[in-house]
Amino acid sequence: MTENSQNCIKKVENGVVLSVRLTPNSSKDDFIGYCDEYVKIKVSAPPNENKANKKLLSFLSEAFNLSKSSVEIISGDKSRLKRVLLKNIDEEKVKQKIFLYDKINT
Q1: pLDDT tens sequence across 51-83
Q2: Dist. CA 33–CA 79, nearest whole Å
């Protein structure tokens, strides 16, 4: 990851906080890149009835091999811009995983 990506991933005492920009109603669930401010993620679920949030949590738990209880939206529940806590994971593991999926120029 580049230096520009440092603000979207923050190490905290019990894990890592990701700043996420969520795009619902996509054809599939995937990372679509990152920029200085957030990691871009798309999910196939619609934004209504909390479905996109649930899909985001499920996608992140699978992507980082975490239990569903280890992934939590801590802010932005009703916004496209969210902060998500990934508990008990190393910051470098998160950076490496997102870097593998990076598909945009930063």
Answers
A1: 999 999 999 999 999 999 999 999 999 999 999
A2: 19
Q: Is 29 helix (H, G, I), strand (E, B) or coil?
A: coil
For 14, the enclosing helix (H) or strand (E) is none
* Residue among 38, 15, 102 nearest 56 (CA): 38
Tell me, yes or no, if the pTM score tops 0.90. no
Q: What is the DSSP letter of 25?
A: S
Report yes or no: 53 and 72 within 8 Å, Cβ to Cβ.
no
Token reading at 36: 């200085």
How far apart CA 32 and CA 49 sit, in angstroms, is: 24
User: Among all chains, which residue has been given the structure tokens 């996509």?
Assistant: 26
CATH numbers and ranges of domains, the chain: 3-101 (3.30.1200.10)
